[in-house]
Amino acid sequence: MTPSRDFVDEARHEIGARLRELKPIVDEYHRLEAAAAALDGVFKSSTSKRPVRRTATRTSSPARKRGASHGARRGRPKGSGTRGAEALALVRANPGITIPEIAEKMGIKQNYLYRVLPGLAEDGLVTKQGRGWTAKDAA
What pLDDT, in 10s, does the model give residues 57-86? Predict the structure, then answer.
């Protein structure tokens, strides 16, 4: 017995709707998988403790009030974000990948990656070849 055309059309519609519903979840899975791969080997030992951050004593010096920091950078250290690790994982998995392709896979804007990838290159982790990027260990 052959299924009716209405049944087939309805099944196609339901499958299409479910695929559209699951796509963001699958995309998130791939981004997390890339980030986890990038973090492999960063700190293998989970027993290491982070240093205690000491707070500076308050002073009333004019330099302090103006925000002078004696040459120290404020904020987190350069390259400590997960976006850099995620981008590095994508470059390792896809040698020659371009920034627009990385941005699409990560679901972020390209302009951020134009700052991240040169930083990874300065650290010796990636190299630029034409428009694409390649991991140093894969080069």
Answer: 555 555 555 555 555 666 655 555 688 888
